[in-house]
């Protein structure tokens, strides 16, 4: 889309077959995009095309189908490399998602470099996927986890973070944009501060990769992780970006085929990057179908999508705030398109059921961020999150449905 074109949301919607369906007799209003985005037809077709036309195992085959599958798989790696602006293609490791990418870093890096007394810093905003793997490796190695506090709006306390840093800090692993609140963290500053103290940085980009321009070279982060299914791609594929020298210095995460150079019963030598971290047959079809998802965002233009989503967020925030007893959590300026809220006297789960009856999909609960919820003193929130294909009309439907549901529940 060029700069003087308008954002044609209807033609974007036409690319997503699922948006034609009805739920409980009503047109689907899908506002659970932070959990997983819907898939454009090109992504769905790429999976079917692979299985119908060139299904083969990759990298080792010496036949036409294997060559075609390998070329498509590696084309996807190249697309991801340019999507995040990595210097080298071998810095892109395919995993099954953000969760696996973080577990890979925690283990493959932590097993080599963490020692008793070392410190890992995370934040109060983290998803469980960026808490539990660090707890597990910290317990194994005798390392200590420290938590950056936030204010009541979900903003990180950078001054407190600065005070936490010392020569004991070995890793700073923080979320780029909070899945529960939408708040964007100042990761550039966090990465720089970590480096000034000789620590590494890992950015959880599960929520940011779809909304923000990601330039790992400019950010200078050591690791960056995200999931395919949140960027309009398939489930079961994720990405770990890591600086080449670092990845080379780490242990393999899993052993098996593909990740070896030579195996004897006495000793194994490991393959070069990226294959050292891609043991076994990968999720070939879904990796291949990640490229059309990236192509979709590039064709529309991430900046255009961001503008559209920001307009939706500010419209929704304004309308939601007019509802009596509704409180937006994470009401800050720097946000991705997530509105998370509580309503006095109403349990989020009851609300979700009533909204579903009206064809509206939202997410409720702790959003895999229980420590954050307990810090905020709430059981959970109702979260609406917007994507490229959502519309203001859908927000009007939501607001009307909310008002109706509140009347029924009070
Ligand atoms: C911020 C954040 N980190 C990590 C994850 C885990 O992603 P996945 O379940 O795709 O591995 C999510 C998923 O919601 C998330 O929002």
Structural summary, described in words:
It is built from 15 helices and 17 strands. It is α/β, with parallel strands linked by helices and 410 residues long. It folds into 2 domains: 9-30 and 301-409, Aspartate Aminotransferase, domain 1; 44-297, Aspartate Aminotransferase, domain 2 (3-Layer(aba) Sandwich), CATH 3.40.640. The strands form 5 sheets. The protein has a 7-stranded mixed β-sheet with strand order 4-10-9-8-7-5-6, sandwiched between helices. The chain has a 4-stranded antiparallel β-sheet with strand order 13-14-17-16, covered by helices on one side. It has a two-stranded antiparallel sheet with strand order 1-2. It is globular. Bound molecules: pyridoxal-5'-phosphate. Pyridoxal-5'-phosphate is lined by residues 97-99, 127, 129-130, 175, 179, 204, 206-207, 227.
CATH architecture annotation of the largest domain: 3-Layer(aba) Sandwich
CATH superfamily of the largest domain: Type I PLP-dependent aspartate aminotransferase-like (Major domain)
Helix content: 40-55%
Quaternary state of this entry equals single chain
Low-confidence stretches: none
* Inertia-based shape: globular
Tally of domains: 2
Main sheet characteristics: 7 strands, mixed
Topology, number of strands: 17
- H/I helix tally: 15
